[in-house]
């Protein structure tokens, strides 16, 4: 029980609320104090999240069990908050509860990573606008709706499960998909292969397929299907969704974590030709340049970005939904490309029927 009497507000007890699902955020060490001579209340808390996701933090104020209509909060509250200790929220009680006095007020802090409803293996990517000044590409602005995205590139083992189901359920592919190991990303898959695989994954899980041709589910051949973004099935991310997700909540940075790159952060081909490539080892990644090409690494081998996504740059290029003329966008670079190709802002493209050991994908859904 915390008791203090300053002006007309008294916060009598500070409660802790945290969600209960696996790897959920955990809020702790909640405390509050009213500023002397003011009607502002400082609310402090710590929050941890096993996945390191960005969080939605909310506050509820109750007086004797009745919720106080309170909206005047600032600080570490709202969407896109990072886990950490010593977080502070400022409540303007004078604006929300003017002229009131109480000895039975309760403050509740709730943190949600949005992943309780995420499909298996996916994380929630918060919608909104990411804008800034990229050091190489200048001013940019990306606005997307909230969506879900595979935390890792689709691994060969995951590809095989869906592919095996698909080929006995009316699907045909140009490539069966390859992978250095079951835990490594699938590669040598064309854009056509990937969108059909997304449809098959949707049908296998009882979701509505996104891709259709003349109103029918796209299962065979090489077509330019229509994508229904309102369907709850799987699809490739749009070009803007991919970049928004890759930046991981950071603005104006060259890579998902900052402006320099090393082999400790991604699987790529290092060269001294670029000032922002500061890896101590040059050439292919020294931990994975064995056993013959391709020199991919296991999906998720490096640290996640701010949204809980792994390998958004390096390892394999990733197909996007959007077209650039007769080609389709690929993003993120790969194990055999130099540092400039790993930048978040780089747009590259390839013909939709093309497939090689440097191109894979990850799926998205609403």
What does this structure look like?
The chain is mainly beta and 366 residues long. It has two domains: 13-112; 122-365, paralog of FGE (formylglycine-generating enzyme). 11% of the residues lie in helices and 29% in strands. It has four helices and 21 strands. It has helices at 93-96, 156-167, 191-204, 239-247; strands at residues 13-16, 26-34, 40-48, 55-63, 66-67, 73-75, 78-81, 84-92, 105-112, 122-125, 128-134, 138-144, 147-150, 211-213, 216-217, 226-227, 317-324, 327-331, 348-350, 359-360, 364-365. The strands form six sheets. Strands 1, 4, 5, 7 and 9 form a five-stranded mixed β-sheet that branches. A hairpin with a 2-residue loop joins strand 4 and strand 5. Helix 2 (156-167) packs across helix 3. The radius of gyration is 24 Å and the shape is globular. It starts with 12 loop residues before the first strand and ends with a strand. The model is unreliable at 1-22 (pLDDT under 50).
């Amino acid at each position: 029980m915390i008791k203090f009497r300053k002006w007309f507000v008294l916060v009598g007890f500070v409660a802790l609320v945290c969600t209960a699902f696996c790897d959920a955020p955990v809020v702790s060490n909640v405390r509050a104090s009213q500023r002397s001579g003011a009607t502002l209340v400082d609310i402090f808390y710590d929050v941890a999240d096993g996945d390191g996701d960005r969080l939605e933090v909310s506050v509820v104020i109750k007086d004797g069990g009745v919720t106080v209509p309170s909206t005047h909060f600032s600080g570490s509250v709202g969407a896109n908050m990072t886990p950490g200790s010593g977080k502070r929220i400022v409540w303007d009680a004078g604006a929300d509860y003017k002229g009131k006095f109480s000895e039975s007020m309760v403050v509740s802090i709730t943190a949600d990573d949005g992943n309780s409803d995420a499909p298996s293996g996916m994380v929630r990517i918060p919608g909104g606008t990411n804008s800034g000044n990229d050091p190489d590409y200048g001013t940019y602005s990306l606005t997307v709706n909230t969506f879900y995205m595979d935390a890792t590139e689709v691994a060969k083992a995951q590809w095989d499960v869906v592919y095996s189901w698909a080929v006995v359920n009316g699907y045909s592919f140009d490539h069966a998909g390859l992978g250095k190991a079951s835990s490594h990303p699938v590669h040598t898959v064309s854009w056509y292969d990937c969108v059909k695989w997304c449809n098959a994954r949707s049908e296998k899980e009882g979701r509505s397929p996104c891709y259709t041709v003349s109103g029918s589910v796209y299962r065979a051949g090489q077509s330019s299907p229509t994508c229904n973004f309102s369907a709850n099935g799987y699809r490739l991310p749009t070009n803007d969704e991919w970049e928004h997700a890759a930046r991981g909540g950071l603005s104006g940075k060259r890579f998902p974590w900052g402006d320099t790159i090393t082999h400790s952060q991604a699987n790529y081909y290092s060269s001294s030709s670029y000032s922002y490539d500061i890896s101590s080892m040059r050439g292919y990644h020294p931990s994975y340049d064995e056993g013959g090409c391709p020199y991919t690494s296991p999906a998720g081998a490096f640290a996640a970005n701010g949204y809980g996504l792994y390998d958004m740059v390096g390892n394999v290029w990733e197909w996007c939904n959007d077209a650039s003329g007769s080609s389709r966008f690929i993003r993120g670079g790969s194990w055999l490309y130099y540092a400039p190709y790993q930048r978040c802002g780089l747009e590259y493209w390839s013909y939709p029927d093309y497939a090689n050991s440097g191109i894979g994908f990850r799926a998205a859904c609403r």
